[in-house]
Amino acid sequence: MSKPLSAETMAIVKATAPSLQKHGVEITSRMYERLFADPEIRFLFDMAAQASGEQPRRLAAAILAFAQNVDRLEAIKGAVERISSRHVDTQIKPEHYPAVAYALLSAISDVLGENATDEVLNAWGEAYLFLSDILIEREEALHREKEAA
Ligand code: HEM
């Protein structure tokens, strides 16, 4: 697992998360605009939408909410299980994570405007990487369990 986030990074993430969550719809639509520009990523969501009957509108909101709890990992254990198993079902792979990072950071930059300083974007980039590592590790374990069964 990646090393824990510094207290400073956490403080920046926590300070900016509420204003990002307030603009949830804008963040989500900007994220998807960027994500879906890549046909391979769009395909993953199209397939998932067919399976579950709805688009994953809550992805951005989940990342924001999740990031606020990265200093209390026990609080997000249940969510990590649910998300990882959904990702395994929908064929999400480690190499898909950077596209979401790029889309998220661009959306944050658009929504926060001049308040999206390098410091803020770096803190969010670190928090996203940290969360990605947790999910990727769990998803790899689930794949191994599936293969062994
Ligand atoms: C830190 C990173 C991520 C977080 C926090 C996250 C969060 C979530 C959440 C909360 C769900 C819904 C789970 C449920 O059914 O209850 C979900 C599903 C999904 N995620 Fe992620 N995700 C992340 C990364 C990614 C990446 C990198 C991709 C692919 C580009 C992706 C694609 C999907 C898809 C296709 C679904 C299924 C949507 C559906 O149920 O229709 N996610 N994710």
TrEMBL record:
Keywords in alphabetical order: Heme, Iron, Metal-binding, Oxygen transport, Transport
Gene3D superfamilies: Globins
Domain of life: Bacteria
Signal peptide: none
Globin domain location: 4-140
SUPFAM superfamilies: Globin-like
Keyword Transport: yes
Sample GO molecular function, one term: oxygen binding
InterPro entries on file: Globin (IPR000971), Globin-like_sf (IPR009050), Globin/Proto (IPR012292)
Pfam families with a match to the protein in the record: Globin
Protein's GO biological process: cellular response to nitrosative stress; nitric oxide catabolic process
Recorded family membership: Belongs to the globin family.
Annotated protein name in UniProt: Globin domain-containing protein
Organism, scientific name: Alterirhizorhabdus solaris
High-level lineage: Bacteria, Pseudomonadati, Pseudomonadota, Alphaproteobacteria, Sphingomonadales
